[in-house]
Every structure is written in C-alpha cells, then in structure tokens.
C-alpha cells in the first residue's frame, strides 16, 4: 500500500517537487515523533503521505467531494475556509481510492490543517509534523519545532495560535474549531505550568 501511494505521489507531484519534499518531510517528522510516543509507524506513514493528496484540487472539486460524502457537508463548507477543505476531501480519497478504514489514519488526514480540541496522538503528530517538518523555514515553524523537543502540546498550541493570527492578518474567516482548539491547548499549557 505505501509503495503504491508513493508511486502515485511521485506521478501527481511530478511538477511540484517542493510539495513532494514537504510530504516526505512530514512523513519523516511523523515517524520520528511516532517512535517517541510508541505509535504504529505504518499508520503515521500512511497518514503523512496522504495528508495533502487533494491539496491542488479546485475549490469546486473539494466542495463536491465534501458534499457527496459528509452528512454535515453544509456545516463543513460554511464553517471552514477553502484552504481547509483539502483535509476533508483527502480523507475521502484515502477511504475510496486506497480503501483505508483505520480511523487513526483517516481522522489525522481530516484534521491536519487547523487541528481540533483534544486530538488523539495520531492527529496531533500529523498536525504538528505538517507545521514543523524540516523544509518549513518560517520563524514560527522553527519556534514550534524547538518546543516540540520539550512538549508536544505546547508546540501544538503555538502552531494553532500562529495559524489563527496568520489567517486573521489575511482577513480570512477563522473556523470556530481553531479557536476551540487554541483554548483547549492553552488550558493544558497553563495547567502544566502551575
Ligand atoms: Fe495540508
Ligand atoms: Fe501539508
């Protein structure tokens, strides 16, 4: 399965070497973290490889996939901005094209863009690996990568907080889930430092 996915990715991203590098960077970071947190590494590898599988679908293509596959499609389409849709559509492609049924993999793909409160370790690892993989060079990503060595929840909080500020500065709508996630990880941060 992993071999097939890699072959597909190499074809899909033939003209997008940076995206391919990013995907492999997320895979490497996720495996590194998975070893620390005793996770099933093949689940993490699969989720990492597929997390951006629909990244270059058009807004209309993503909306159609969400519409056809989610009971709460309207809530998703209205509640999230278009940059976040690919998490939801990516999950569907993982299920339909690659017959993946494991929820650790599927929900990690679905929630990799902005996270959510109370993430599982798989969701958290894919989310933070996407933000901190070695090809990310923004100051905020480097800051989160450093925090990750000490405390994954603190790194997650920082990544969500920075992403919210980024979207706010752009004037984009920030999904409610992002604020809820920030609040959730802020509470953890504060309780850990009491
Ligand atoms: Fe993504
Ligand atoms: Fe990504």
How many separate domains?
1
Tell how many strands the DSSP assignment holds. Answer: 0
Poorly predicted sequence stretches spanning 5 or more consecutive residues: none
Strand content: under 5%
CATH class: Mainly Alpha
* Percentage of residues in helical conformation: over 70%
Count, helices = 11
Radius of gyration: 16 Å
Polypeptide structure, described:
α4 crosses α6 (85-96). Helix content is 72%, strand content 0%. It has helices at 2-12, 17-36, 41-50, 59-69, 73-79, 85-96, 103-110, 121-132, 139-150, 152-170, 176-192. It has 11 helices and no strands. The protein has 194 residues and is mainly α. The model has no long low-confidence stretch (mean pLDDT 95). The protein starts with a helix and ends with a helix. The chain has one domain (2-137): Hypothetical protein af1432. It is globular and about 45 Å long. Bound molecules: fe (ii) ion (2 copies).
Question: In summary, what is this structure?
Answer:
By secondary structure, the protein is an all-alpha fold.
SSE topology:
Blueprint (H helix, E strand, L loop, with lengths): L1 H11 L4 H20 L4 H10 L8 H11 L3 H7 L5 H12 L6 H8 L10 H12 L6 H12 L1 H19 L5 H17 L2
Bound molecules: fe (ii) ion (2 copies).
The site of one fe (ii) ion has 5 residues, from helix 2.
């Amino acid at each position: 399965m992993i071999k097939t996915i890699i072959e597909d990715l190499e074809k899909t991203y033939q003209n997008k070497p940076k995206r391919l590098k990013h995907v492999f960077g997320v895979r490497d970071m996720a495996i590194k973290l998975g070893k620390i947190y005793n996770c099933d590494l093949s689940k993490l590898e699969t989720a990492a490889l597929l997390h951006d599988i629909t990244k270059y679908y058009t807004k209309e293509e993503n909306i159609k996939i969400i519409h056809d596959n989610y009971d709460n499609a309207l809530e998703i389409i209205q509640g999230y901005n278009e940059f976040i849709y690919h998490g939801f559509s990516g999950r569907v492609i993982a299920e339909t094209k690659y017959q993946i049924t494991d929820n650790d993999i599927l929900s990690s793909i679905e929630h990799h863009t902005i996270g959510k409160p109370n993430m599982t370790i798989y969701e958290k690892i894919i989310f933070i690996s996407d933000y901190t993989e070695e090809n990310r060079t923004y100051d905020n990503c480097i800051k989160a990568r450093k925090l990750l060595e000490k405390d994954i929840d603190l790194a997650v909080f920082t990544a969500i907080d920075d992403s919210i500020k980024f979207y706010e500065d752009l004037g984009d709508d920030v999904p409610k889930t992002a604020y809820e996630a920030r609040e959730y990880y802020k509470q953890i941060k504060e309780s850990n430092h009491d």
